[in-house]
Amino acid sequence: MPVTSPTATAAVRFKGTVLSCVVLEISSYASDEFAASLNEQIAQAPGFFTAAPCLLSLERFHGELPAFPILDVLEQCAAASIRVIGLRTGSPEVGQLAQIAGLPCLETSEPRQQRRPAPPGPTADPAESLAPKVTGTKVIRQPVRSGQQVCAPDGDLIVLAPVSTGAEVLAAGNLHLYAPLRGRALAGIHGDTGARIFCHSLEAELVAIAGCYQIVEQTAEAGWKQSVLIEMFDDRLVVNPLPAARSVG
């Protein structure tokens, strides 16, 4: 049999990566209502969802999963220019739906934890996440330019230069951004709901913690071009002014 030299270059190679994608959670389904709700969500950020990879999540679906009209939903998503790449959940029923649709069925990496409602003001104390704590910090000193993605898969990410529109920064833990953030920032990418985003100047297209996100129209209403602290409370993001540093002595 032929022997491949250890120094030979393979024609293909598998590599792991962290993929940022939209998750579409479906709690109930009626054709007209679903289409209207989908279009309403897309209208909040025209162009943002177009051709973006999307996972369907049926973890909160209240109906009978075996009867879920997966092909109708995929057709409606395609009509709205949403590209569904898989279903997110590990139940056998959803696995069967994934087979019908010809899509992969992806396990949920971390269960969503119950969180307390957010107390008012910047002194809010978020509920502790039960997700595993991560270690290992990455520091980036160069600008993150449009089309680039920088990820700290095992800990915090510190960026000391601007993040351009169309760029993306991700971290398993916290994000510390000491220059204008104009791209996308995703903290707690493995499900750590206690992760935070510390931002010097908030001008982001999107910010997210543990999959819960806000788009530019929402962040523009709270702390635009200001130094902010972004935390997660009760399944939503809360943006507060970053407390000013206190002098010592």
Shape: globular
What kind of sheet is the major sheet? 6 strands, mixed
Q: Which class best fits the helix and strand makeup?
A: alpha/beta
| Computed CA radius of gyration, to the nearest angstrom | 20 Å
- Overall mean confidence score, pLDDT: 80
Helicity level, as a percent range? 10-25%
| Termini gap | 76 Å
- SSE arrangement, N to C: EHEHEHEEEEEEEEEEHEE
In spatial order, strands of the major sheet run 5-7-9-11-14-15
Number of helices: 4
Q: In total, how many beta strands?
A: 15
SS strand fraction: 25-35%
Question: Which terms summarize this structure?
Answer:
single chain, disordered C terminus, 5-stranded mixed sheet, 249 residues, 15 strands, 6-stranded mixed sheet, 4 helices, alpha/beta
Blueprint (SSEs and pairs):
Layout: E1 22-25, H1 31-43, E2 53-57, H2 70-79, E3 83-88, H3 92-101, E4 105-106, E5 138-140, E6 149-152, E7 157-159, E8 168-171, E9 175-181, E10 184-187, E11 197-202, E12 206-209, E13 212-215, H4 216-219, E14 228-233, E15 236-241
3D architecture notes:
The chain is an alpha/beta fold and 249 residues long. Helix content is 15%, strand content 27%. It is built from 4 helices and 15 strands. The strands form 3 sheets. A 6-stranded mixed beta sheet has the order 5-7-9-11-14-15, with no helix packed on it. It has a 5-stranded mixed beta sheet with strand order 6-8-10-12-13. Strand 2, helix 2 (70-79) and strand 3 form a beta-alpha-beta unit. Mean pLDDT is 80; it is low at 110-120, 122-132 and 245-249.
